[in-house]
């Protein structure tokens, strides 16, 4: 293997741990990195390497994948380790892998365009939560374009826009990026409308995706509450499956909104901006207290649900989506063409209530919808009432009658 002049691994190791200390990462996290450094040092020694390069990191990962029987999650963690090491080696410093939009550094050109786009969205009546979401998605898109070598919007090409879009894993963000690109062309930031290169997410299913009570139980039962992650994840699942809370409201739930004394959760809904009050069911109460008292990291953060590793920031909706998907897989619940993610609990709760004869108005209030017609979406799966609408099949005639009575064959 050809070597190039690069810092020795011990130098990179010292730099990386200094950055971990500066960003207040836990001792457990640093211990994990020390273990990975031992494996990397062994690999380099066996191959006669003293200097580290990105190519050495790539070879290490390929060798580990080929010679070790490891899980996908372990390989993902190893990739994260090598990415951090490469960031230091390439002179980028320490790049947080979980960052918010306001932590991304953009050039003046990109910042101005993004700010003007958000202002136009505000003028159209977008609420603050939507504006925050669009800011994050557009900022991340601009960040990706900059990383690809585009220094100003005037240099943007269809190829660069395509490459940036393909790095965006959240398909819901594509719609926002498409609108942003149209805005850039309308305002003269770009010489062409590149919105046509943005992939289109699959059309949403008309009928709500519903999971049975047994499937919901399997998802919940897959959680191992002996771990900190399990204690937290069970709370998240129960808030979604028992109280039909949206993932955005779950991650923003704060201590001030949970009233254990009166048995209520009172919070302002992120989507509608309306106050919602829900009862704390016994299983929800027990799960919350178990996580808060026995699992939650020691933090001054007011939001209840935090990341497992330092820095202990509040969770994102993407993390909630991952929790649900992992638990579905562990519980052996297959989507089989249905949607999968936190929203399945809301649709399943709503459909269950409708089938049990609960009025649409009551269901609407529990789900926190403003539009009284929205809940009628679940009428499509109102089995009992749909049975009353069933029509009697007409008597067979002609060839069909002869076929059924054995006087004709296919």
Automatic annotation (TrEMBL):
GO terms for molecular function: DNA binding. The keyword Zinc-finger does not apply. GO terms for biological process: DNA integration; DNA recombination. Pfam families: Phage_integrase (PF00589). The keyword Plastid does not apply. Gene3D superfamilies: Intergrase catalytic core. InterPro entries: DNA_brk_join_enz, Integrase-like_cat_sf, Integrase_catalytic, Tyrosine_recombinase_XerCD. Keywords: DNA recombination. Residues 206-391 form the Tyr recombinase domain. PANTHER family: PHAGE INTEGRASE-RELATED (PTHR30349), TYROSINE RECOMBINASE XERD (PTHR30349:SF90). This is Site-specific recombinase XerD.
């Amino acid at each position: 293997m050809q070597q190039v002049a690069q810092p020795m691994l011990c130098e990179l190791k010292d730099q990386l741990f200094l950055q971990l200390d500066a960003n207040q990462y836990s001792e457990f996290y640093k211990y994990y990195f020390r273990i990975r450094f031992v494996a990397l040092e062994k690999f380099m020694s066996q191959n006669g390497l003293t200097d580290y390069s990105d190519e050495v990191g790539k070879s290490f990962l390929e060798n580990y994948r080929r010679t070790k029987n490891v899980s996908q999650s372990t390989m993902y963690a190893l990739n994260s380790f090598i990415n951090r090491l490469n960031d230091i080696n390439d002179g980028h410093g320490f790049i947080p892998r979980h960052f918010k939009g306001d932590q991304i550094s953009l050039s003046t050109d990109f910042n101005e365009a993004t700010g003007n786009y958000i202002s136009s969205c505000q003028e159209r009546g977008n609420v603050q939560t939507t504006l925050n979401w669009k800011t994050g998605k557009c900022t991340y898109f601009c960040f990706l374009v900059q990383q690809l070598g585009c220094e100003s919007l005037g240099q943007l090409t269809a190829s660069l826009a395509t490459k940036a879009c393909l790095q965006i894993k959240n398909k819901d963000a594509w719609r926002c990026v498409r609108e942003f690109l149209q805005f850039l062309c309308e305002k003269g930031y770009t010489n062409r409308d590149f919105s046509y290169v943005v992939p289109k997410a699959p059309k949403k299913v008309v009928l709500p995706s519903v999971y049975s009570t047994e499937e919901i139980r399997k998802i919940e039962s897959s959680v191992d509450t002996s771990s900190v992650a399990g204690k937290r994840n069970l709370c998240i699942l129960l808030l979604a499956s028992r109280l039909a809370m949206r993932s955005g409201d779950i991650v923003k739930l704060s201590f001030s909104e949970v009233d254990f004394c009166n048995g209520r959760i009172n919070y302002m809904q992120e989507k509608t901006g309306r106050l919602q009050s829900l009862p704390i069911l016994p299983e929800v109460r027990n799960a919350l207290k178990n996580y808060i008292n026995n699992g939650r990291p020691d933090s001054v953060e007011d939001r209840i649900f935090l990341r497992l590793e330092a820095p202990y920031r509040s969770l994102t909706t993407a993390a909630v989506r991952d929790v649900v998907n992992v638990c579905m897989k562990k519980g052996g619940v297959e989507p089989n063409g249905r949607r999968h993610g936190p929203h399945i609990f809301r649709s399943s709760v709503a459909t269950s209530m409708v089938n049990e004869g609960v009025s649409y108005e009551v269901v609407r209030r529990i789900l926190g919808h403003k539009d009284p017609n929205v809940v009628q979406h679940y009428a499509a799966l109102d089995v009992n009432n749909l049975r009353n609408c069933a029509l009697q099949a007409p008597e067979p005639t002609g060839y069909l009658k002869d076929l059924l009575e054995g006087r004709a064959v296919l």
